[in-house]
Amino acid sequence: MTIAIIIGVCVVLLVLAFLLPRLSSMPQRGVDRTLGVGQRAGGKAPGPVGRLISKGFGTSRRATNRSAATGRRARRKLPL
Fold it and tell me: What are the domain boundaries of the chain?
């Protein structure tokens, strides 16, 4: 279920960054901040479980940021 949510957020950020590059930074920061809180909270769990939870949130953060950056980069390449 969480994988589907992250994929949906990535798609929304990609489309938003392509259509409205300047206005897409605030939603991206909001998603980044939310996943950062989860990453920090997961990192406080003891042992390997904490690293596993933290890694999942970190990977999701990286995917959403990369998705938004890809949308902005594609928009820059348009001949407008």
Answer: 2-76
Cβ-contact 33, 66 below 8 angstroms: no
pLDDT at 1: 82
Low-confidence stretches of the chain (pLDDT beneath 70): none
pLDDT at 14: 96
| Contact call for residues 54 and 43 (beta carbons, < 8 A) | yes
Tokens standing for residue 78: 């348009």
Cα separation, 46 vs 16, in Å, equals 38
Q: Which of 23, 27, 34, 21 is nearest to 60 (CA)?
A: 34
- Compute the distance between CA of residue 26 and CA of residue 37 in angstroms, rounded to an integer: 17
